[in-house]
Backbone:
């Protein structure tokens, strides 16, 4: 469902919050790793398909993070790409502005999960008509070795971030996340889920934005306690090898199903920023199965299943 946006001040307010969110998270992660995240500001060149720019905060080969990427972008185009207008054909061909913060963090330690978080605003424009907006976003956790307390903590923070805006939102967005982050060709979830929402404008602009802010502001509390608990756990080559194998599922999902990746590539987005979510070390094996009774097998039996965590 969509609604009209009030005026340009609305988008300016969202932009300022998103830029501040990126900075807060990047500073916190740099402090956790002990290595500041580098800053790569970028601007679209004149004559390109998209206009606008953004900033990527990136850390590769850090003390803790093998890769940590947090991107902010604010771009404008003349026609919505098919991935954005497929569910709302009445908006096809409209101009648009898309802004968002998106992050993916890949720790080196296999006992520390990969995590993804995204908050975004898309505004569709047409001369002579009021702009139409919708928000999207969420966060989800992808462990390689499962821990019940970590999964419950992550989902509890997600639930608490949404609760002030409606008791129905967490169950609804949790189910949406389970359905969305699912590899159909593998018949398995990507991880243990979290929350996901798109096309969100039901309560109007101010209340929708307040809910999105609550989600984005909750991210550090959802993730930092987990990696603080696990960062000192010893691991060996076997655990790293399993991590690289499971990371292959992450790559498959992002390249085949992820709407954000498809939107970016279809709209002529900045390839380096779009693909920074990819893990730096990954492998695939032919028809491999974990040994029964191992921690690797338990990931499949106890965690890569749709279940209620809180």
Residues:
């Amino acid at each position: 469902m969509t609604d009209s946006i009030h005026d340009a001040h609305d988008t300016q307010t969202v932009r300022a919050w998103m830029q501040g969110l990126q900075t807060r998270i990047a500073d916190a992660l740099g402090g956790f790793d002990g290595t500041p995240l580098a800053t790569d500001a970028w601007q679209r060149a004149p004559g390109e398909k998209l206009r606008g720019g953004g900033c990527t905060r990136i850390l590769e080969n850090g003390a803790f993070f093998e890769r940590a990427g947090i991107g902010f972008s604010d771009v404008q185009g003349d026609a919505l790409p098919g991935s954005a207008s497929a569910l709302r054909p009445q908006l096809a061909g409209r101009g648009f502005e898309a802004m968002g913060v998106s992050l993916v963090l890949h720790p080196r330690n296999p006992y520390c999960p990969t995590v993804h978080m995204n908050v975004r605003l898309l505004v569709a424009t047409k001369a002579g008509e009021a702009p139409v907006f919708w928000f999207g976003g969420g966060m989800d956790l992808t462990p390689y070795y499962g821990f019940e307390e970590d999964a419950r903590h992550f989902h509890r923070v997600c639930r608490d971030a949404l609760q002030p805006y409606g008791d129905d939102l967490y169950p609804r967005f949790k189910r949406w996340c389970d359905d969305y982050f699912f590899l159909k060709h593998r018949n398995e979830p990507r991880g243990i889920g979290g929350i996901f929402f798109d096309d969100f404008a039901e309560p109007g602009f101010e209340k929708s934005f307040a809910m999105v802010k609550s989600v984005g502001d909750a991210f550090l509390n959802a993730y930092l306690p987990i990696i603080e608990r696990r960062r000192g756990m010893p691991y060996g080559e076997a655990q790293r090898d399993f991590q690289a194998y499971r990371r292959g599922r992450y790559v498959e999902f992002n390249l085949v199903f992820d709407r954000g990746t498809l939107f970016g590539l279809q709209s002529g987005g900045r390839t380096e920023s779009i693909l920074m979510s990819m893990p730096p070390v990954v492998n695939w094996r032919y028809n491999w199965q974990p040994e029964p009774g191992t921690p690797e097998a338990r990931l499949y039996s106890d965690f890569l299943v749709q279940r209620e965590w809180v």
